[in-house]
Design brief:
The complex is a heterodimer of chains A (442) and B (228). Chain A is an alpha/beta fold and 442 residues long. In chain A, 34% of the residues lie in helices and 12% in strands. In chain A, the strands form five sheets. Chain A has an eight-stranded parallel beta sheet with strand order 5-15-14-12-11-8-7-6. A two-stranded antiparallel ribbon of chain A has the order 1-13. In chain A, α7 packs across α9, α9 packs parallel to α15 and α10 packs across α14. Chain B has a single domain, classed as Pectate Lyase C-like (3 Solenoid), CATH 2.160.20.60. The chains are: A alpha/beta (442), B alpha/beta (228).
Chain lengths: 442, 228
Amino acid sequence: MDSTPRHGPPRFSATFDPHSIAEIQRAASTGIYAIRGGGTKRRLPHFDDLLFLGASISRYPLEGYREKCGTDVVIGARHASKPIHLKIPITIAGMSFGALSGNAKEALARGAAAAGTSTTTGDGGMAPEERDYSSQLVYQILPSRYGMNPEDLRKADAIEVVVGQGAKPGGGGMLLGQKISARVARMRTLPEGIDQRSACRHPDWTGPDDLAIKIEELREITDWEKPIYVKVGASRPYYDIALAVKSGADAVVLDGMQGGTAATQDVFIEHVGIPILAAIRPAVQALQDLGMHRRVQLIVSGGIRNGADVAKALALGADAVSIGTAALVAIGDNDPQWEAQYQALGSTAGAYDAWHEGRDPAGITTQDDQLSARLDPIKAGRLLANYLSVLTLETQTIARACGKSHVHNLEPEDLVALTVEAAAMAQVPLAGTSWIPGSRSE
Amino acid sequence: MTSFDLARRSVRELNAALHGRAGDQGGTWQIRNPAGKHSIAVGLDAPLNLSIEGHVGYYCAGMNMRAEITVHGNAGVGVAENMMSGSVRVTGNASQSAGATGHGGLLVIEGDAAGRCGISMKGIDIVVKGSIGPMSAFMGQAGNLVVLRDAGENLGDSLYEARLFVRGPVRSLGTDCVPKPLGATELQILDSLLRSAALRDAASPEEFKLYGSARSLYHFHVDHAGAY
């Protein structure tokens, strides 16, 4: 009998891969799109595709631990009489009370304050514990205006007009009923337990001319004291940043598609917007063309994990970075100690993204009192402060190696790219060559 | 009475004065020559009585708390946006987004209001003697919108718990906005609002129809996908 197999081993399609097939089956079974938290999970050109050159004979390095390498940043001195002074160029991104538990917001506030940086409210108003423990708090104004009130506006240290976010440029917020607790509902003036869907456009302005008037109103209400940021999701960064500056922003926040969300359609997260690596240089170019680079601060976010990412973002021209997902991980999100419970929810530590369901074993993305109580805000705040310290030390390590006495002195000339794509997006040479794909001199 | 001339001094000077010690003392202010300027009398938080003698631009009386403000003229976009308390009266017409996202207080417009009147309202009461434009009370969460004449297209689209009282024809209702019975409680609310707006003589509560949320969009459901 011929023992030659009639078929080879099972072969999976690259197009209809197991994930795609499972998603088709899930869609057919439920009739509704998938919703989840977090940012894009696909592989993208990212900061990992860049390397620093480091000093050698042609450049002098600085001594680690002996020669000073500054990390401070001032945000909002363009118009505000009380600009923000941060000790480190790493801020905590906007995340709402509602999406996060009160203990999580308090932990972020404590950690940021200990590190000398700012934290940010979200789509749901200012929680008292967040204000109490934040030394510098940025108050977001979103299309929904949930919990928006002038008293909190005056309590804030800066104001951020949110036009969009990287996970969903062009989309509004979403908070499903499991997380609309009595307190969240009261803060947002919504019925308890409903599926909240926020507007994607602001209710009282449309376009950059109106935005300029809106920003002026916010300045008038707060007597021109507070810096006003404008946040956009990365999609057309050159034009969006230029229009934000034209509208009078003191600072612009640019969020790449790796930036997280509390709850959004998976198709939106994975297919709308561009990676932060591709967005920074056009944004910086817009600022430079307007003579506003370093006068209007650029804060970038989306996929910042370590000091190398921070250093690379700064070298490409950002003034600061913002972290969301990484901050949640630092305070305990996806901690392996909850593995059995992640598995019970059909996930595993490191992949848990059902932030919208409100059953987070770590007590972070939930409004369940018992789950929230698992997060000790003092201990978690310490974890965040530690993490921010490491990010800062790593950034300084790289800056000193490149001979910089301040992290803002890092520059594109310090970088090379490992891939043609990254070289084109970051507009730095492919390593070992002088080739910058797409450059005018090419 | 304090008189302030915007032909001679800036909006910044006006708002600084109203936010400062002079404003804290309350009293009556007359604002002359507003000339359509933006952000007049925004962010007030004092028992002031303001009379603005002319047309105003965007966001007049924005985020008002406690002050009572009358605009003797027309108002631009977003008059009394995000008002918390107090009252604002416009003797002429109002542009788009009048009373947008307001949490409290009373906004009275003696003329017409353009589109998106009461958009995302969160507890404010708005009374319009004339008609309102399209997409009014979009995503209205709480509060009352009273219209003595007509309403434009898509009234109350994606409405939450705001009540919409309209006396005249409604060109069309938005998604999830439906007629509701006008019961004794609603008639009492309406009567009170008309009296507060000094328009009780202009209309009787029984002449209105009430519109509210069908609440069918409160939870995502595949059967409602066509409505989103």
